[in-house]
Amino acid sequence: MPVFVEEEGESAFMFKKNSLNKDRYGYYFVAPFFLSFFIFGLGPILYSFYLSFTSWSGFEEPVFVGLANYERLIHDEVFYQSILNTLIIWIFSIIPQLSIALILALVLHEKFIKGSHFFHAIFYFPNIITPVTLGVMFALLFDWQTGSINKILEYIGIVDEPVNWMNDPWMARAIVALAIMFQNFGFNMLVFLAGLQAISKDLYEAAEVDGASRLQIALNITIPLMRPVIIFTLITSVIGGLQIFDAPLMLGKGPDNSTLTMIMNLYETAFVRYDYGYGATIAYGAFVVIALATIITFMVPGVRNKKEV
Amino acid sequence: MKNAAGTLPPYEREWKKTKRKSLFVKTIIWIFLLVAAIICLIPFYSMIITSTHANADITRKLLLLPGDHFLSNYERLIDVVPLWRGVFNSLFITIVSTVLGLYFSALSGYGFSKYRFKGNSFLFAAVLATMMVPGQLGIIGYFRLVNEMGLINTYWPLILPSISDAFALFFFKQVADGAVPKELLDSARIDGCGELKTFHRIALPLMAPAIATLGIFLFIGKWNEFLQPMILIFDTELQTLPVMIASVRSQFNVDYGAQYVGIVISIIPVLIVFAIFSKQIIGNVMSGAIKE
User: Is residue B282, in this structure, part of any structural domain at all?
Assistant: First the structure.
């Protein structure tokens, strides 16, 4: 060991004689990252792009077919349906998710709440549960004949006979959305709480001195100052919310493919029906949809300006 | 003072009234919070309770109290699906990936922060841009590449990509910018310390708290990974826990007791870890949120 240390010291010393500038060493530091990035990140993405112009069932070599897959994609009703399903599920989950998160954050921010850590922990816990587990959990809870939800509703007397939740397209989408919401509201709540804690206390004190009511304080101070945080949450949830896969897969495709999401469609096409070439085309189609949705979110009036402030 | 006290009673009455009103509001808020917490816990309670009952009871009754069929449900499940093996596999993949991811992200984040090499800002911007790309975009190309390289059904294609995590790189560049002063590095160099040794001996210890923070997130992310192991691993024995849970769902489609036990087994490790580290995890999420 001492020999090694000496050697290293010596080489560094020699290098210093040549130049005081060590900046070219930076390449060595970032090299492993980029090596891995090209092999495991960018490479597969570009290769997928090539595969999207081929027909490949996994058993033989891919055959170049030109734009045939893309032509098929723009006439593929299942693809459009999967976009629509994903957007519907996203809207169904994002609105209650952010509302509940904001309400809970505002409540938990109140000083008189004792043991707030206990509540933080309970509301955040679903966020670290494996999405697959959560999907199976919801499938079991909302099972037609054995699920606890139906048993509870029957016990209280709200329904006379079990509701076949997953048999109705809208109900099925609502349940998928509920699972997504349950997974994420706690995370958003913590983000909002952090935003609330970052607001200067002086502002509140000044408002109280001026005799502002609690409602006025909430509307004129809290909400405007929280806007960048809310918008940040909204943008990240567009990117994440359109890629939902694990939990929805466990809840199934629903009647008439009504809960088939974009990524589920990609998975089924490639890895269940072994139509890999077309699967790659679907992946690029989904990428375009997600990119467009992100751009549209940025274009919503006020989003960009408020973020810069 | 005495004069002021003499004029107090009407104010005091007013004050008492607002106090009573605020007590009422507080009670409502407390009830609201408790109800929300109970709703949040019911699914977990229901999973645990139901896993302890026989299939016949699960089908017929609303179950509120624990039963005594947990072991028989558990045995039927374990006979078919090696869940504990899955826990072990997941732990192995997750720990190795997290350690690799932390080390190389810290290394490259430090590299971007402390060396003004040519193309620094361009490369960094390129990495940031990839954060907007959905992870599944390259999945089919990756599947074929892994196949061609003969790495299918091994852990390499699950572990090695952790070296290039764009978010982790971004995070560590910020950390190195803030926590590692350039003067300290220069004085180490004057003492004859090599570049890599400077990183190991000086920068890495200064970045330690951030390593702990990010480690939790990388760990949770890897533990939950599902699509990649599902398509890249064929042997049931090698499979990760989330994929095994998914297969429990399809293999036991009428054996509800076994499915419930599977859920309970997959939740319990997370619950234990969370019970120990919840303060740190929640603190990390909140401090991370402010940095964004």
Answer: no
Mean pLDDT, range B269-284, rounded to an integer:
87
Task: Judge if B37 and B117 occupy the same domain.
Answer: no
Q: Nearest residue of A to residue B270 by CA position?
A: A129
ipTM of the complex in this document: 0.86
CA distance B194 to chain A (A): 5
Q: How far apart are CA A187 and CA A120, in angstroms?
A: 9
Contacts of A126 (CB under 8 A, 6+ apart): A134, A182, A183, A185, A186, B40
CB contact under 8 A, B282 and A197: no
Q: Compare CB distances from B274 to A125, A148, A276 and report the shortest one's residue.
A: A125
CB A193 within 8 A of CB A124: no
pLDDT digits (tens, 9 = 90+) for A176-189: 999 999 999 999 99
Taking the CA of residue A92 and the nearest CA in chain B, the distance in Å comes to: 19
Least confident of A217-221, B36-40, B122-126, B208-212: A217-221
Whether B76 maps to a domain, the answer reads no
Name the domain count of chain B.
2
Q: Which CATH class is domain A70-308?
A: mainly alpha
Radius of gyration of the CA atoms of chain B, in A: 27
CB contact under 8 A, B285 and A108: no
**pLDDT in the model for residue A13:** 46
Per-residue pLDDT of B144-183, as tens digits, reads 999 999 999 999 999 999 999 998 999 999 999 988 888 8
* CA-based nearest distance B221→chain A, Å: 9
Structure confidence at residue A198 (pLDDT): 84
pLDDT of residue A236: 81
The string over A234-262, giving b where at least 16 C-beta atoms fall within 10 Å of a residue's C-beta and e elsewhere, is bbebbbebbbbbbbbbbbbbbeebbbbbb
CB B194 within 8 A of CB A8: yes
